[in-house]
Design a protein that fits this description.
Length: 187
């Protein structure tokens, strides 16, 4: 239980810090954005913003297809039938919490980030596995953020010194567990 509370606090901190950064650098842009469409799925949810950019997020724990208790169904201004047309800034700044709201916040941040990257000089390399961009001819110390199973297997098999920062200890099983580093304990 303590680990889940720390995980939730870390997630909220990342969302808040990301929002503050976006507001300090792109306030005029994000103030104009509204939610055009929202799709909630079993494992992923997606948003489409008024600028046409989409964002996706993995559903927060507890966001399955179950009937939540009445107190958990109060989404305020973000009740499912009222969410279209709402300002994204209102969603990002709402004090309402819950798995659906948290997932939508992350999807919105992903959409905003995608739009900013598309409009920048930043080069996005498509159709390339990120691991192919690294020079792994020599043994290296590598830290992965997230339990990407195929990367973990390939990098560890090649003899690299590997650590995997992950919020969910159950994401790594068997012999891969030895690479696990709790994300909240990492400096």
């Amino acid at each position: 239980m303590h680990h889940q509370i720390q995980k939730k606090q870390s997630q909220l901190m990342v969302i808040q810090q990301t929002l503050e950064l976006l507001k300090s650098r792109h306030k005029a842009r994000i103030e104009q954005l509204t939610l055009s469409d929202v799709r909630l799925g079993m494992h992923l949810s997606a948003v489409k913003l008024s600028d046409g950019i989409c964002g996706v997020a993995g559903n927060a724990p507890g966001n399955g297809h179950h009937a939540p208790r009445k107190r958990e169904r109060d989404f305020g201004d973000f009740t499912p039938n009222q969410i279209r047309g709402r300002k994204v800034l209102d969603l990002l700044e709402t004090t309402k919490q819950g798995p659906i709201i948290d997932t939508l916040k992350i999807a919105v941040l992903n959409a905003i980030s995608s739009g900013l990257l598309a409009d920048s000089d930043y080069t996005v390399i498509e159709d390339k596995d990120p691991i192919e961009l690294l020079d792994l001819t020599q043994k290296r110390k590598i830290t992965l953020v997230g339990a990407f199973q195929s990367y973990i297997r390939n990098l560890s098999a090649a003899g690299h010194q590997l650590r995997v920062l992950e919020m969910n200890a159950d994401s790594l099983t068997g012999d891969l567990q030895k690479y696990y580093v709790p994300a909240h304990e990492y400096p």
